[in-house]
Amino acid sequence: MMQTITHSWFVQGMIKATSDAWLKGWDERNGGNLTLRLDEADIAPFSADFSEKPRYIALSQPMPQLANTPFIVTGSGKFFRNVQLDPAANIGVIKIDSDGAGYHILWGLTDDAVPTSELPAHLLSHCARIRATGGKDRAIMHCHATNLIALTYVLENNRDLFTRKLWEGSTECLVVFPDGVGILPWMVPGTDEIGQSTATEMQQHSLVLWPFHGVFGSGPTLDDAFGLIDTAEKSADVLVKVYSMGGMQQTISRQALIALAQRFSVTPLQSALDLYH
């Protein structure tokens, strides 16, 4: 028996990622969004499930680099916790048209639902990560990771300082995100402006903080993007506890971070490494 698209690896992957993120407490109500870049070969076996008359929506700015590219995306106003209950109502497969000016909704997003309002930020960030990773990065997750948000109220919103503190908060952090953490000023969400600023940071960093709001993370797979944020959030959780207990009395030294980078063959963000000894 031929499987339907709801049994595909990418729909099942979205169900798991959105459910896991909600259980973490990162995606209250309709908070957060998730996109995954697909190939034509991924969706071709499920063409029988596609809409006979796919809805077309124009993009606010052309994305020719993504022409003819399919994505699976979460919907605007949709709750992560409900994706597992009714995937077709809460997520959808879209395909950018041949000139990058808009997209068709091939499957899902029923009852005239539309993709996340953060779609411009996601697509611009996909473009940036394609360039930065030679096409390896395919997943982008935005969520409201509690402790990372909390730290933006306490630490100076400075890339090098935030990166260094997260590296010190958990030994594995430098290995998982040696490229550091990009940080934006507070900006209105859902706009091309925040999308472009995020994409600019994504050219250098796989993780970007939106102060007082949340975080963007990218990776080759949904697991990678989720795991990246999860790792940073664990470190932030440790740091919140440390600062609540009066602050650091000792920490991972610069030389220890250098040794860690050498052991795992990663190149850490030099400016964060050199911030202090």
UniProtKB/TrEMBL annotation:
Residues noted as binding Zn(2+) in the record, renumbered to the chain: 142, 144, 213
Cell compartment(s), UniProt: Cytoplasm
Pathway field: Carbohydrate degradation; L-rhamnose degradation; glycerone phosphate from L-rhamnose: step 3/3
Necessary cofactors: Zn(2+)
Domain of life: Bacteria
One cellular-component annotation, GO: cytosol
Catalytic activity: L-rhamnulose 1-phosphate = (S)-lactaldehyde + dihydroxyacetone phosphate
Recorded GO MF terms: metal ion binding; rhamnulose-1-phosphate aldolase activity
Active site: 118
UniProt-listed Pfam families: Aldolase_II (PF00596)
Domain Class II aldolase/adducin N-terminal: 12-240
InterPro entries: Aldolase_class_II_sugar_metab, Aldolase_II/adducin_N, Aldolase_II/adducin_N_sf, Rhamnulose-1-P_Aldolase
Cofactor note: Binds 1 zinc ion per subunit.
NCBIfam families cross-referenced by the UniProt entry: PRK03634.1, rhamnu_1P_ald
Assigned protein family: Belongs to the aldolase class II family. RhaD subfamily.
Described function: Catalyzes the reversible cleavage of L-rhamnulose-1-phosphate to dihydroxyacetone phosphate (DHAP) and L-lactaldehyde.
Assembly and binders: Homotetramer.
Name listed for the protein in its UniProt record: Rhamnulose-1-phosphate aldolase
Source organism per UniProt: Enterobacter lignolyticus (strain SCF1)
Taxonomic path: Bacteria, Pseudomonadati, Pseudomonadota, Gammaproteobacteria, Enterobacterales
